[in-house]
Write a structure and sequence with these properties.
Structural class: mainly alpha
Largest sheet: 2 strands, antiparallel
Number of domains: 1
Strand order of the largest sheet: 1-2
Order of helices and strands: HHHHHEEH
Number of strands: 2
Strand content: under 5%
Helix content: 55-70%
Radius of gyration: 15 Å
Protein backbone atom coordinates (compact mmCIF):
# COMPACT_ATOMS: atom_id res chain seq x y z
CA UNK A 1 0.00 0.00 0.00
CA UNK A 2 2.78 2.45 0.86
CA UNK A 3 4.70 1.64 -2.33
CA UNK A 4 1.53 2.20 -4.35
CA UNK A 5 1.02 5.51 -2.57
CA UNK A 6 4.52 6.69 -3.49
CA UNK A 7 3.90 5.68 -7.09
CA UNK A 8 0.55 7.47 -7.00
CA UNK A 9 2.04 10.70 -5.68
CA UNK A 10 4.74 10.59 -8.35
CA UNK A 11 2.03 10.11 -10.98
CA UNK A 12 0.05 12.94 -9.41
CA UNK A 13 3.07 15.23 -9.62
CA UNK A 14 3.38 14.45 -13.32
CA UNK A 15 -0.29 15.20 -13.96
CA UNK A 16 -1.68 11.64 -14.05
CA UNK A 17 -4.63 11.89 -11.67
CA UNK A 18 -6.19 8.53 -12.53
CA UNK A 19 -3.41 6.56 -10.83
CA UNK A 20 -3.96 8.35 -7.52
CA UNK A 21 -7.67 7.51 -7.67
CA UNK A 22 -6.87 3.85 -8.27
CA UNK A 23 -4.33 3.78 -5.43
CA UNK A 24 -6.76 5.36 -2.99
CA UNK A 25 -9.71 3.14 -3.80
CA UNK A 26 -7.47 0.08 -3.67
CA UNK A 27 -6.21 1.08 -0.24
CA UNK A 28 -9.73 1.43 1.09
CA UNK A 29 -10.78 -2.09 0.05
CA UNK A 30 -8.85 -4.41 2.43
CA UNK A 31 -10.32 -3.19 5.74
CA UNK A 32 -13.81 -2.92 4.25
CA UNK A 33 -13.59 -6.42 2.75
CA UNK A 34 -12.54 -7.81 6.12
CA UNK A 35 -15.32 -5.89 7.87
CA UNK A 36 -17.89 -7.30 5.44
CA UNK A 37 -16.61 -10.83 5.96
CA UNK A 38 -16.67 -10.53 9.76
CA UNK A 39 -20.21 -9.14 9.57
CA UNK A 40 -21.79 -11.55 7.12
CA UNK A 41 -19.79 -14.72 7.91
CA UNK A 42 -19.41 -14.56 11.69
CA UNK A 43 -18.78 -18.31 12.10
CA UNK A 44 -15.43 -17.86 10.40
CA UNK A 45 -14.12 -15.37 12.94
CA UNK A 46 -13.42 -15.24 16.67
CA UNK A 47 -15.55 -12.92 18.80
CA UNK A 48 -12.62 -10.47 19.05
CA UNK A 49 -12.11 -10.51 15.28
CA UNK A 50 -15.81 -9.81 14.75
CA UNK A 51 -15.79 -6.90 17.20
CA UNK A 52 -12.67 -5.43 15.65
CA UNK A 53 -14.07 -6.00 12.17
CA UNK A 54 -16.70 -3.34 12.77
CA UNK A 55 -13.94 -0.76 13.28
CA UNK A 56 -12.58 -1.66 9.85
CA UNK A 57 -15.63 -0.10 8.17
CA UNK A 58 -14.61 3.27 9.54
CA UNK A 59 -10.91 2.70 8.93
CA UNK A 60 -11.49 1.67 5.32
CA UNK A 61 -13.73 4.62 4.62
CA UNK A 62 -11.02 6.89 6.05
CA UNK A 63 -8.28 5.23 3.93
CA UNK A 64 -6.58 3.66 6.94
CA UNK A 65 -5.54 0.35 5.45
CA UNK A 66 -3.68 -0.64 8.60
CA UNK A 67 -6.92 -2.06 10.00
CA UNK A 68 -6.27 -5.10 7.82
CA UNK A 69 -2.81 -5.80 9.27
CA UNK A 70 -3.83 -7.90 12.32
CA UNK A 71 -6.01 -10.08 10.12
CA UNK A 72 -3.31 -10.46 7.49
CA UNK A 73 -0.73 -11.30 10.15
CA UNK A 74 -2.99 -13.94 11.71
CA UNK A 75 -3.92 -15.63 8.41
CA UNK A 76 -1.79 -14.34 5.52
CA UNK A 77 -2.53 -17.19 3.11
CA UNK A 78 -6.23 -16.36 3.06
CA UNK A 79 -6.40 -12.66 3.87
CA UNK A 80 -3.68 -11.32 1.58
CA UNK A 81 -4.89 -12.88 -1.69
CA UNK A 82 -8.46 -11.84 -0.93
CA UNK A 83 -7.47 -8.25 -0.22
CA UNK A 84 -5.17 -8.09 -3.24
CA UNK A 85 -7.90 -9.40 -5.56
CA UNK A 86 -10.49 -6.95 -4.21
CA UNK A 87 -8.11 -3.99 -4.30
CA UNK A 88 -6.95 -4.88 -7.82
CA UNK A 89 -10.54 -5.03 -9.03
CA UNK A 90 -11.37 -1.69 -7.42
CA UNK A 91 -8.29 -0.04 -8.89
CA UNK A 92 -8.91 -1.50 -12.33
CA UNK A 93 -12.54 -0.36 -12.29
CA UNK A 94 -11.50 3.10 -11.15
CA UNK A 95 -9.09 3.34 -14.09
CA UNK A 96 -11.66 1.90 -16.50
CA UNK A 97 -14.26 4.41 -15.34
CA UNK A 98 -11.81 7.29 -15.80
CA UNK A 99 -11.93 8.32 -12.16
CA UNK A 100 -9.34 10.92 -11.23
CA UNK A 101 -8.15 12.34 -7.93
CA UNK A 102 -6.04 15.44 -7.65
CA UNK A 103 -5.51 15.19 -3.88
CA UNK A 104 -2.72 13.04 -2.41
CA UNK A 105 -5.02 11.34 0.05
CA UNK A 106 -8.08 9.13 0.09
CA UNK A 107 -11.11 8.07 1.98
CA UNK A 108 -14.52 9.63 1.97
CA UNK A 109 -12.89 12.99 2.62
CA UNK A 110 -11.82 13.33 -1.00
CA UNK A 111 -15.01 12.03 -2.64
CA UNK A 112 -16.11 15.62 -3.42
CA UNK A 113 -13.05 16.13 -5.61
CA UNK A 114 -13.02 12.75 -7.37
CA UNK A 115 -14.02 12.77 -11.03
CA UNK A 116 -16.93 10.35 -11.63
CA UNK A 117 -17.67 9.97 -7.92
CA UNK A 118 -20.59 7.59 -8.38
CA UNK A 119 -18.51 5.22 -10.48
CA UNK A 120 -15.72 5.54 -7.93
CA UNK A 121 -18.16 4.34 -5.28
CA UNK A 122 -19.15 1.45 -7.58
CA UNK A 123 -15.46 0.48 -7.87
CA UNK A 124 -15.08 0.63 -4.08
CA UNK A 125 -18.19 -1.45 -3.48
CA UNK A 126 -17.30 -4.04 -6.12
CA UNK A 127 -13.75 -4.48 -4.87
CA UNK A 128 -14.86 -4.68 -1.25
CA UNK A 129 -17.57 -7.24 -1.95
CA UNK A 130 -15.32 -9.39 -4.13
CA UNK A 131 -12.56 -9.29 -1.51
CA UNK A 132 -15.04 -10.22 1.21
CA UNK A 133 -16.54 -13.08 -0.81
CA UNK A 134 -13.13 -14.54 -1.63
CA UNK A 135 -12.02 -14.20 1.98
CA UNK A 136 -15.22 -15.78 3.27
CA UNK A 137 -14.88 -18.68 0.84
CA UNK A 138 -11.24 -19.29 1.81
CA UNK A 139 -11.81 -19.08 5.57
CA UNK A 140 -13.03 -22.18 7.35
CA UNK A 141 -15.77 -22.08 9.95
CA UNK A 142 -14.35 -21.93 13.46
CA UNK A 143 -15.45 -24.65 15.83
CA UNK A 144 -14.73 -22.43 18.83
CA UNK A 145 -16.68 -19.39 17.54
CA UNK A 146 -19.40 -18.19 19.87
Amino acid sequence: NKAAYVFGTAALASGNYEVMAAVMVGGMVPPIAIALSTTFCPKKWTPDERRNGIVNYVMGLCFVTEGAIPYAAADPLRVLPSCVAGAALAGALSMTFGCALRAPHGGIFVFPVVDHTLLYCVALAAGSVVGAVILSLLKKDRTDAA
